[in-house]
User: Fold this.
Amino acid sequence: MQADYAGAEAHFLPADRFGYPNNNGHVAIVIHKTGGDPTPESVEQTFLVKGRSVHYAVGQDGRVWQFVLESSGAGGNCCAEPGYDPFWDQYLHEFRDLNFCTISIEHCDPTRDNSTPLTPAQKDASFKLVAYLAKKYTIAPDHIKGHNSIDPPTLCPGNYPWDDLWVYLKGSIMDLTNPTLAQYFTATSNDQWKCKSTGNVVQYAMLQFYRSYGKDAYCGLTYLGLPLSNEIPIGGHPGVVKQEFERGWLCYDPTHVIDHPPGAGDVYVMHLP
Ligand SMILES: [Zn+2]
Assistant:
């Protein structure tokens, strides 16, 4: 079985003992540090002994191992303890167990108190993995949390570099403080941009995709151009829509009934219809 993330090696734990198949609402990302396990190999051994699990572990050398499918719940975020962040209340109510709605990532730290700084390779791999998951499941930065937000006494994730992560994630998504984008779009709500020259609206998941597509220059404006249509329903597939841009079409298709590009999230670039 292949890893979900192209940058990960597949080291899936035995499915009969680990993970909750097709049981993940993907509402948040939870960051962990290992507090002792120095390598992905030793993380795997610890999981096999203790029966716990996460989706991914990032080694100090930047290797990423996947242990549980993203479509499954993993076994690392159970049990909100007294003093947990009230952010979780809505999801405890909806999902009961936070393993059923979170993707979790371990980071190898050889010290028990999680005080070792991430190595440059580890930090790079971590931020790329977080950005991939955030984009794929439309998870906003305020839904990326540390393990200690669930279990406050824990020293996990220790000195994880949150400020650097926020800067990194902001850099990979364009907003209308960018003067070039502001020449072409106005925000009609938080989740909708209206094109000043064509009058068409880019919204919700399409907008999220447009704002980060290509990850450089002006993202969607550079690689797709201006919207030439609003969203257009695709016949026979309720909830699936397409939208025409100057340089291509986007498709909103969360269950991938039209096409299934490897690694794609809810939105992908589609063939000319
Ligand atoms: Zn943890």
In short: The chain has a mean pLDDT of 93. The radius of gyration is 20 Å. Helices lie at 40-50, 89-95, 120-136, 162-171, 179-184, 204-212, 220-223.
